[in-house]
Fold these 4 entries.
Entry 1:
Amino acid sequence: MLVYTFDRTLDGLLSAVFDAFSLRQQPEMLVGKGEPLLLFCEEVHEVVTSDDRAGRVWAGLEKRLSRQAVKLLMVSYLSELPELDTPLFHYICKVFRQPEGRTSIERNLSDPDVLAVTNIGRKVIYEQHRMLQFLRFQKAKDGTYLGVVSPDHDVLPLTVAHFRDRFGDQPWLIYDAKRRYGFYYDQQEVTRITFLQEDSLPFDLDSGKLRDDLLSENEKVFQELWRTYFKAICIRERMNPRKQLKDMPRRYWKYMTEKQ
Amino acid sequence: MFLVYFDYLCKKFREVSLIVFQRMLTEKTIEKLQILAESAKYDVSCSSSGTVRGGKQGMVGNTVGGVGICHSFADDGRCISLLKVMLTNYCMYDCAYCVNRRSNDIRRATLAVHELEEIVMEFYRRNYIEGLFLSSGVVRNPDYTMERLVAIARDLRTVHRFNGYIHLKSIPGASRELMSEAGRYADRMSVNIEIPKEESLKLLAPEKDHQSVFQPMRFIQQGVLENKEDRKRLRHVPRFVPAGQSTQMIVGATAETDRDILHMSSALYGQPTMRRVYYSGYVSVNTYDPRLPVLKQPPLVRENRLYQADWLMRFYQFKVEEIVDEANANLDLEVDPKLAWALRHPEQFPVDINRDEYERILRVPGIGVRSATLIVNSRRFNRITSYHLKKMGVVMKKAKYFITCHELTDGYANPIVGINELHPERLKPLLVSKAQQKKAAEEMQLTLEFLNEESGGNE
């Protein structure tokens, strides 16, 4: 069995596709560098990541696939799931192997690789939508709005455009507590930020709460109003906690004002 | 010197007044918001769908369209997308089904305009809500009430530069001028029919009739259509009620059958601007009123079946006569309406997954819009088998009785067991779980307690 190892970046994966075609090989699996190999690995090829080669493969993909499908590929990569690597690799190889002029393979959901990538991509898009739903801002004294999240997949970059469009006139900071980075918007442009001293963050990583002395004056009042509203709007005769959990899984609750 | 001192005084005064203003917002407002949200919660609609409007320079907010964004889910499992609140729950009407009826002894409150506007803006900026769904009890007369609702929408748009979603309830009987002004600021407007048959409405709400509901609906529709014409000529004419209108019907408060309700919805969907009809299982709020049935719990299964039927009409190309007819005036509580239709029409099956057209595949129980699209797209590449179907998300437990695909048809090893071999009456018990049966049976019992037209039958 032929196995390729790569550095688990998107560029690395695209370079692996390049190698497979230039070496005329068809590896069965893609494995991250340093991860234990399966038994019966007779041949191992180490992929060297190259921006240039990755770029060429990506350009080829953009030529052969619809924009939607290219976006789905990129989005599925943000899932950070190790089980995505091999199907994504095979999917891309199949795109280059299909004869010209046929209906694009992206619509063939009976292909296991296409289906796997599409399903993972859809999962990531769901989670992105959940960030738009469940992220809660707190207003700080200096007028900045802070929102902390910890998504399963690395979806923060996908949400920036939405928040920028919606809250264009207020400075905000959204922070991924799991991956320790965030985006700051200063009413002009969005910058990716990390905190240099992680032990002196202005907020608590576990609850996302801003330190009390940094809260704006009536922040607590509005939080209380929101909690009151949340309780008042429920019809007690129709209690349905199962539906609530299905639509709003418990893992998102810890940063949500109404559930704290 | 004097000027500096004066300046200082002014500053101080502003600070003091700010503090007073904030205190005003804290103490009473929480209580008022609670009262008015509780009064508004029986209105079902909370969707923020139907308009795509990007952010604008100098304004706050956008609307995303598509399915909208639900920002939270209450303990009853319902989506919280808009701040659903009444401006006041004082009301001069005495509708039997409504909590806010004049003769009810409940806490009453009115939100001040500036309070409501501040709450909306601050909630929106914290990503709590998509916008505002504003309704009101009728005070003095319909026009007076409507005017106050319109004033808030206008303020939000022009003073607070709010660009998010606004859903305005139009008050039955409001004048045309007010409606057309409201339409300029609101994304969606709604008038609730509440009761599908006029004679039942007259019985429960003597002050209302269908005319007072359909008149504003017609105003909105005319406004939208005129606006469409105007926009063809001048591109920059602002849009009028871009997300169309919605309405709501109460289920289980009167003796209407599902057939009456669905015929009404079907007629409403025939109008060009009607986007959604909501169904609200009646919650016994006014148990003392002899005109209303006493229900232990709201008819949730029936409400669910009505929504399923609604979906069939909107997305599955079903006609209302196919879902309910004279013989089946009420929907089957045990099985969903699509399955019920399939069981009544065994001659339409089996459907060949690899050959039949999209419309027929869509009629198979267990196959939805998404999987039907996937099937039609994928079968150009290779034959679809039941393995593929399962992977695509088809509910094979149901679908397998209604389809043939590659491997089910060939061979003696796998004899075909479809609806035509089993017969509908033997198939149905296989598809209904014990839990579903129990739920349906519980709700059937509820309807026995109907106390319509009995005098003094209230407990």
Note: Residues 16-20, 448-459 of chain B have pLDDT under 50 and may be disordered.
Entry 2:
Amino acid sequence: MSETNSFDLIIIGAGPGGYVAAIRASQLGMKVAVVEKRTTPGGVCLNEGCIPSKALLDSSELFAMARDRFALHGIVVDSPHLDLRTMMLRKEDVVKKLTDGIAYLFKKNKIERFHGTAVLKGVNPAGRHQVEVALAASSAPNDLQNLLDPPARTFVVITAPKVILATGSEASALPGISFDSNVVVTAREALSFEYVPEHLVVAGAGFIGLELGSVWRRLGAQVTVMEMLPQILPNMDRQAADTLYRSLRKQGIQFKLSTRITGVRKIGSKAIVQFNSGAGSEEVDCDKVLVAVGRRSLSTGLGLEEISVSLDEAGRVVVDDSYQSSVPGVYAIGDLVAGPMLAHKASEEGVACVERMAGMTTRVEYEFIPGVVYTWPEASSVGMTEEQLKTAGIPFRSGRFNFAALGRARCMDETEGFVKILAHLENDRILGVHIVGPRASDLISEAATVMSFGGTARDIALICHAHPTLSEALREAALDVHKEAIHA
Amino acid sequence: MEIKIPEVGESVREALLAKWFKKSGEMVKRDEPLCEIETDKITLDLNAEATGMLTITVPEGTTVAVGAIIGMIEESARMPVTEVTAPVTDLADKLAAPPSSPSLRRDMREQNITPDEVEGSGKGGRITLDDLFTSIEEKSKMPPPSRPATNVVSEAVLPERTNAAELPVSPPVDAVSAPLEINEPAQQFSVRSEESPSYSSVRDERRPMSPLRKRIAERLVAVRQQTAMLTTFNEADLTHVKALRTTYREHFLQRHGIALGYMPFFVKACIEALKEFPMVNAGIDADDIVYHHYYDIGIAIGSDKGLVVPVLRNADHLKLYEIDQAITAFAGKIQTNHLAISDLEGGTFTISNGGVYGSMLSTPILNPPQSAVLGMHAIQERPVVRDGQVVIRPMMYLALSYDHRIIDGREAVGFLKKVKEYIEEPEELLLES
């Protein structure tokens, strides 16, 4: 085995789990190889998920603001028109800058990248895991030559005592309705529509569906969200979800809850969606159907069955608390294992996984992982919901403060939503925080910090918050836990 | 299909089941190594005889008789599916733990300390870094308790996962408790230094001796106590052997697929010398001396498990290349744990080559009931005197350890001198054999 193909650690997948794990492992002194099938690192998160969707959310938010709200501030402009091409190019530029940044970090940390797909080939006599990489054609030197005379796929075998699987997940399809990347699409295509659809039907009222529905609604599309369950964001605190629901409806997004999509008929570039809301079969015309009904772990094609890696019934890799699978030396993190499919959860697991390899005792504290929905107003939460506390029979007190009563929110003309703090009835420890409102995504980190330190509602109440800021809402909500809010 | 401890050799009645490579419930493939067994002579890998699900009935570390059943392979079994169970979170427990910071919780795990062992001096019983240091110091004054096998962390330190946000969070499961590698911090109660831990922090490690190692140890001591071992030295000029090798190397490689080594020359030289000094090829059995009219030469080969000495049977009938091929085959078998006990039994004389490790001069130890052993050493260019001139020659020190009870000094020295002569004038070997 040549020195160049032997490593201390091989990571399959350069998404937010894999690339963070790679950099941390390199910091800890390991010689790391990363196999990635895309030409750019960053995975779904950077290439077709979190980052491009936020770029579009910010752009479309500005557009909607100029159109609908500038007048209120006394700014008179002619009705703005949309240059979707430029908006998309800006989004692509944001993605490129960030993926280039990771490519640079790989170089800086001497992480070797292999562009291609990986298959685990078991352990060699020296006890090292063998990973066969089918190199992507574009990594061959002469592209023109390749076009004329396509080369046989080149394979390399790399080895390491440890392998981390970080291949992530892909969008699930509706039963019986397959994706066609034009009319019935996943979030990836919905981030790159070439025109604003007249009518976009979104299947699934989870955060992906609501975020992309918001983007296209703001840019002028009619948007209908269909959800099988009687509520949106089923795992969210009810008060928060209801507030967001009202707000999104006010923005013109239509909802059909308790609705099952039974079929999609395509007519040219249009489609007729058949659905059932309990009153028999109905139909609606649209030009795009975004299916966002969940994601599925990408555990196939890696040779996992062949080397007897145990998977659960959802196709996720079963791992122990060091993220090691049933095969010693094979680890898995992120969307490939149980838990919420969140980029920051994958990154945390990546760090914990390699630090534990290095003998450290790091653990991911799952109860303090925040979740965010980037609609406008935004929604975020950390810890338990009111419903979960009631089910668990834990005595609690709740404090709440509306942004409508907050100076800064008034100045911004962002008065929708609230901060809600749930604290233990006896020891006042904070059990959950739920925010709907402007920049809820940034506000949640104070809550996550205090909870990680085992803090109480009184702790937040006793910390001086600058005035006038949005963060004051958190302090007022904490005061309200003991019914001592100043501005309520 | 049952997995049995196979017959490994005449004198072997039991074996240590040293290590299972697979876990119970795991799928195994035919011919995949399942476990490692150790006898007092060799270490062997046991391969699966069928594809299926493994059930282990005898845990590793157990000594088992030859023929014993140590597990089963269920051939019809399919891939097992381990249930991912939703986390059972005992919130009451979690809330009982005093507040602390995330980094402090990691420090506590590192020191194997649970929060109830620490008295929190902060507000609401909060544990501070100083509290932890105090607790570590107190604990280090007490006799250290026996160490738990893994870093056991109280559930209370680690408020297990509640549902975090969007989706219910299931924690990684312990169901497949794959063995952790030796990555645990070595010092349990030391105050953690400011530096982050290095990749490996193990300083001392205690491991039981393998049966093979134990047997080697016992035998070596016995040899010292039960024989009258002496060593005599000489040196050989390898100019001719070297020239022969250089001249015929390519030819040899083409004809026999092997690069002619030095060892075959020494085997041949020893056999010729043994013929002249039969006592060196003999052994003591109680009050008798047993003379052997055959030449079974043991070749000592180092491995990571210890030194093993496979035997070249009737080496006097082997050609040079056959000797070389046989030795290469032994080395391969040792690496893959496929050496058979029968390969090690018998032997009338042994050759040990410390030269491969660069040894200049050392005294080999006898391998009873044999009475002598030849030690080869590194070849070095040294100034020597030939015909009144100082010249540079490739020289090797030779050592012969012998049992003085049956071999006299004169015979030992004479034998070694003969070996030296055959090596220096290999043509004579041709004329003699």
Note: The mean pLDDT of chain A is 93.
Entry 3:
Amino acid sequence: MAVYEHLYGAYEGESHSAWSRFLVIPRYALRETFKSKLFTTIFILCFIYPLVAAILVYLHHNVNALALLQINVRELLPIDASFFLTFVQVQSAFAFILTVLVAPPLISRDLSNNALPLYLCRPLSRAEYVLGKMAVLVFLLSLITWIPGLLIFFFQASLAGLAWLWANLWMIQAIFSGSMVWIIMLSLLALAVSSLVKWRVVASGALLGLFFVPTAFGQIINELFLTRNGHLISLWATMKNVWSGLFGLFVRKTGEIRGRVTTPIYDNELVDIALLEPPLWASWLTIALICAVCVWLLARKVRAYEVIK
Amino acid sequence: MSLTTEIREPNAATDLKQPDMSRARATSWSLWTRQTLAIMRLEIKKNFLSRRALLLYLMAGLPLVLLSALALFPPPNDELENFSELSQVYAAIYGGLILRTLVFFGCAWVFMNLFRGEVVDRSLHYYFLAPVRREVLVVGKYLSGLIATVLLFSITTVGSVVILYFWRFPTESARYFFDGAGASQMLAYLGVTILACIGYGAVFLIVGLFFRNPIIPALLLYGWEWINFLLPPFLKKISVIHYLQSLVPVPMSEGPFAVLVEPTPAWISVPSLLLFTGIVLFLASLHIRRMEISYAGD
């Protein structure tokens, strides 16, 4: 058909309700993501630990299996708060790897190809655009963190009985909110880095650096200054404290060391100094601050146009 | 660009009716050297002056900031009050922060971007269209990355020593460094930093060349280097950190779970790392000769 014969045609497809428009973005992004064999392999590997955890839960309640494997039930890990805390920590580590793989091109590709105006000229706000990009990560990371976590929790509840369920009902909230805090922080951080750095590889590198360099730096601060406040600059250590708090396993005093102190009471005397983890509110505040900075960066960078001098 | 002016000599050499092979070879070498230097000049500018260099400066400056803070706000720590314990403190900072984290990530940042950065900038074809042997390009780029990382992390290594020792114990430190074992220890740390840049640089150069998404290999490598203390003796030797740790003047305890092995002597460690670098550069040269650029997807 000749070009001049093309006439304007109104959109005749199904129209989306205003609140669900942002879901168009994850639909296409997820399709793109699963085209990568590397990603699919790592995504499958993320389910190994939940499988192991489910087997452990099963073994706890199956006398025949224990007899067959010649294992005493006391030799198995107890299915309690620390079991689910470990589960959340392990799966969150996998969530970080998935984020490093998936997140960097999410916004950077649109920015480097000047595609943002194409999104924002449609009935989609900037917030919805970011929400749509975030939904990709939230969906994928939920699949490997709190969803299998809750499935294992209910599996254990179904085998242990109602009494166990009632006694440990609070853990549902701990598994869900612990995972969601990590997912939201990771997503915001990754999207902010992706919007700042237009190149995928550089964005991935920056994300890795943001995670590992402050961790090592914080560790050295802890060793040198005889403190545990260095954990506040390490994302992982901060989150570990938050998770421990949610599972009721947070202990502030993690060690003791002899040091020389000069205060109005002690004059250059050797005393035992308690090594205290930062209080829980400080860890929550750190996470809130990181998220706020990321939201601010996203608000600055995600714009339909850019004035270049 | 200076590269275009350097094209003529090989043509002149090939145009000789009666080629004098040794003369032609000598001309080629001098041409390659000049081309390498020209590429290095261009790349060094990028490594030091581009926006990407900011992260490198930040990483190189971290220990200096930390140790300045330590000098200004001394903690109630016996080790830091005792001059003889400072070598242990420095060994911990060097091993835990500088060598294993900052030099590692700094080299990853610089060397992976040497080629991958050109691909994402869509500028690698300018180099490939220039009449330069691709092996020369590899060497030029590698040397430029090496100069950048060696310079910055050497400043970090020496600066950290100076701040830690001289800020609090100037007299003892002066005696230790000018009359005692301090200078040789500092030189040994400097040597380890340089060797780390050489070794990690070669690894990340080839990772950046072979992988479209080099982050996963980098992550695996980081994990491998971190669990090195748990590995059996044979596997320990398949890592850069094992050879570097063998050369560190003040060895650090690796914890109760570490598998203890004899450190590899310097006369094996240093040539091994250099040989490994040579092999990696050779492989990179072989790979780049057949390399075709595809900017799609980056």
Note: The longest strand of chain A covers residues 253-261.
Entry 4:
Amino acid sequence: MTQATARPLTPYGFLLPALLVTATVILYPVAQTIVFSLQDYLLYAPDDARFVGARNFLAVLKDEVFWISLRHSAVWVGGIVFAQLALGLVAALLLNQSFWWRGLARALVIIPWALPSVIIGLMWTWIFDFNTGVLNDVLMRIGIIDQPQAWLAGPRSALACVMLALVWQGFPFFAIMILAGLQTVPKELYEAAEIDGASAFRQFVHVTAPAIAGIVATAVLLRIIWVANSLDVILVMTGGGPGYATHTLPLYAFLRAYSGMEFGYAAALALMLTVLLLAIVWLYVRRQAKELDA
Amino acid sequence: MSLRRSALQTFVQVEVPVLLILAFALAPFAWMLLTSVKPTADLALFPVRYLPSRLTFEHYAMLIERTSFAVNLLNSLVIACGAVLLGLATSVPAAYAFSRFRFAGRRQILTSFLVINMFPIVLLIIPLFVLMRKLGLIDTFVGVIIGHSTFSIPFSVWMLVSYFNAIPRELDEAATIDGASRLQTIRRVILPLIMPGLVTTAIYVFITSWNEYLFAMMLSGQTVRPVTVALQLFIGEFTVQWGLLTAGGALIALPVSILFLLVQRRLVAGLTSGAVKA
């Protein structure tokens, strides 16, 4: 509907401020990361950086910690997204039923999602605390464990504990997305299914599931990307330890940059993560891009 | 299927499970608040003492009087407001252009705003730190605010495009016929109509910026340190002082939780509308 009076350059004028800032804070840094990844760039000696070609990437592939972190990332993403989806789906189905305090329940369930990751890390660290943590207390009272466990210091339990915190933070997102999908299902479909004598389970499989499949797929893609990139809760709760027990790929890249100051190597790690995620991003963007023609 | 349930059935099959889920969702938060008002002696007990022996605000008082926390709160406020201003000032015209013009590259540019929102933070944070250091913007409000525009601009553009699209174009045309210039049309007709969407987007950006940790940690120093970074440093400094830490957590989390509850209905509608249509 472009107005007849619009000059061809007008839209670009409107876009200019956003494009300028975005180019400065995103495009330029991404280009820089690619350059860094080809150098032995050390933060404390930036002028000594030399071009080393693919050496950083080859070193990454030989780096045992990279493979440990990659394995943890796979467990991390798979476990968290699956648990968030399962819990979010149950929550959404329940919150779609009618009961008198439904509005309040819908509002309150989102709270974990609004909280800062530092606070999430802090409150869960306190719950898992070895000496006076409430989790040890509860589990001992109901007789599941005999003596306090060092949850976050245990190489076997640490990753699962941090994952629990992430599941807690993210399941409300699934709940509200799926709830929005459920609300688009016409009531008549359920009535018709009921007249046909379909059980609640069959109603879910034949009416509910197809209706929310699209929104669930979108939410899963979005979450995979988000969870795969997230590192701040781990950083706060364990810093990647004990040992490498809670190292994931973005955390490892961050630690090499922040503690090791090896920006070249960290840039190579960050690029590997990006490439691994590219397929998921592409799928997500393709789904969302349908919107553009609306 | 919800029509036939008796009150008792609803209670057992729906309300009890919902209560359990809400307990899971709210318990850690409630536990933090409860911890923050217990006297220090209570916190050293194991088995745990659940209810405080007396209510106390000593941790809050100590946090405000003995640490830099009040200044950090103020820093966070300045940064979040700055992020909102920079985000909206750039995104409103951009979203207007995406909604009202058809031009070469429109689709590609709009898609790239979506893609850059997906980039790993670690990919951006390293060179951004080097860039800010070159520009002398480390530990300045401007530096952190610009850092936060990495997420505020792409997000705001996408939210606002859908709000702009919801306003019928006939209104623009009617205003033009009445002799209004483009800028007059935007100011008098369109902006008032998207005000609710604008407010929702602003609040979301505010919350995200207030909550943000990694950019703030890399780009701030002592001068402009926001609360999230300060609290994380306290965790290192006061390891066993859980009263102090949870009081800090409560002071950071309460404002955003309240803000979030105020706008949650509209925000959820805005965030999910795109996904529902797709």
Note: Chain B touches chain A through 105 residues (CB under 8 Å).
